Amino acid sequence: MKLISWNVNGLRAVVGKDGFAWLDEIEPDFLALQEIKVKQSDVPSEIYNLGFDEISTNSGERAGYSGVMSMSKFKTSSFKGQFFDDSEGRVLEHHFGDIVLFNIYFPNGQKDDERLEYKMNFYEAFLKYCDEILALNKHIIICGDVNTAHREIDLKNPKANSKTSGFLDIEREWIDKLLAHGFIDTFRHINGDVLDAYSWWSYRFNARAKNIGWRIDYFFISSGLKDKLKDAFILDQITGSDHCPVGIELEI
């Protein structure tokens, strides 16, 4: 099974750029999108012709902001965020078999201290919820834009960004905690400490052409799925957003 996650930073804009042409080659079984920025009623009709059997949408109450969409070639039971007030449209939770799959657009904390606090509260509430699911002997897959680079090798300029939300110690420590709770960073598990592997680049300063980026989009899996992980990758050749897709292959 091939699963892909992509922060599209505007679904209509990506559709307008023919930004899903790569699907014919990659052929994912599950595609998770973040920052779709549209209400369900305004989803472009082209989305329904991409070959997926199931499409779930969780749009934020605020127009043109946030929102997640999942497209699947297999049946799941899907829910909006269960562990907090999901009025911003940040979570889709999918159940199939003994697996719970999360498509999440985690909050960005750069605006001010209040949003950083919101982000950290979201992190903690989500990890507690994951612990409750694991206690039920379920496996978990987490994908999406986590809005934090974990280690210094996960961004081009770690020292210059050490006081910037997205690379603050408290944010990075939460990823440490997530891994300590039995989760695996699939990209690092497969690829080790490979350098210059990023999933987001600023639109400023020609950052993408210079590969001045951050790895803030992830697939985490619970330890019970480790032996089923066959590949983890970043599709940095795919354009259309300031993020690129990331993905995994699981033998399930």
UniProtKB/TrEMBL annotation:
Domain Endonuclease/exonuclease/phosphatase intervals: 4-243
Per its UniProt record, what Pfam families does this chain match?
A: Exo_endo_phos (PF03372)
EC number in record: 3.1.11.2
Membrane-crossing residues?
none
Instruction: Give the InterPro entries listed for this entry.
Output: AP_endonuc_1 (IPR004808), AP_endonuclease_F1_BS (IPR020847), AP_endonuclease_F1_CS (IPR020848), Endo/exonu/phosph_ase_sf (IPR036691), Endo/exonuclease/phosphatase (IPR005135)
Top EC class of this enzyme: hydrolase
Q: Which GO terms describe its molecular function?
A: double-stranded DNA 3'-5' DNA exonuclease activity
Cofactor field: Mn(2+); Mg(2+)
Q: Which keywords accompany this UniProt record?
A: Hydrolase, Magnesium, Metal-binding
Q: Which SUPFAM superfamilies match?
A: DNase I-like
Q: Record's family?
A: Belongs to the DNA repair enzymes AP/ExoA family.
Could you tell me what this protein is called? Exodeoxyribonuclease
Please report the organism this UniProt entry assigns to the protein: Campylobacter majalis
- The encoding gene is exoA
